[in-house]
Design brief:
The complex is a heterodimer of chains A (238) and B (74).
Chain A (H helix, E strand, L loop, with lengths): L11 H19 L18 H25 L2 H32 L11 H5 L2 H21 L4 H29 L21 H37 L1
Chain B lengths: L1 H25 L5 H5 L3 H34 L1
Classes of the chains: A mainly alpha (238), B mainly alpha (74).
Amino acid sequence: MTDTKNYMYKSWWKIASVVLLLYTFTAGLLLEVPHLPALQETIRNLYFHVCMWFAMMILFTISVVNAIRYLRNFNPKYDIYARQYAVMGIVFGLLGYITGAIWASYTWADPNKPAINSFSTIARDPKLIGAAIALLVYFAYLILRDSIQDMDKKARISAVYNIFAYAMLFPSIWILPRILPSLHPGNEGNPALDVKNDISSNMRMVFYPAVIGWTLLGVWITTLKIRLSILKEKKMMS
Amino acid sequence: MMNFCKRILLLFVLVILTGEVFAQDKKVEMADTMRSNGRIYVVVAVVITILLGLILYVTRLDRKMTRLEKENRL
């Protein structure tokens, strides 16, 4: 469990994360971006707001993989992994939600009225509701976990629930908001991944490194929490 | 014939107008002043400082964890 070959103790990807984030923050603010009406300079939020959701999705994927690994051999280590990755995914999801709310209140709101007047229109957007449902499902995961006393039962039930929660992500953030009319961009094709006719190549040069940088930062913080939980567990056993 | 000419003229006017509209589209207001007087670098410096501070914090936490783990193995 604590052998030094574990990825948690390697430093190259932590350095990569720092370098990519430094690049994101400088190039993201300085490089040329397309001049689009209504968005203007706020288009740079792509490097921050959208990356939060990408990172959330990747962290939730790691979480569900670990939940399945737990169910295969009932090694409590994987239960700790699954839980901590899910928590970090929720943190990134919340950050994505908050940054999205700030961004929307400047770009979706009616410019002739105070932003608060457009609230009911914006809050009704299917993408927002879908994301809220997805996050609530994961909140329920934590509540479910912490309400069970028995260690094995807790790990087993929450691993199964984790799979359901992950499955719920797809209708709530990938499918339903795309079927319904939405103000949120990226309803057709593969938004942000379509090389031909989506975001400009200039932005892609920052966006992809940004996604990797943010995700690695999330993984880094998660590994610290995992190490802490494993240490705690060990202390309890001894 | 007169009618035809009128139509062509109208078409031309419309084409020119659309050109005008496109030209307007290109002139979206960006934070160009901020870039030209170099104030954007101040923002970059502030943002980078915050990022580095947070990274330093996480790095120290990482070190601390490693030490704790080593102590516990003994």
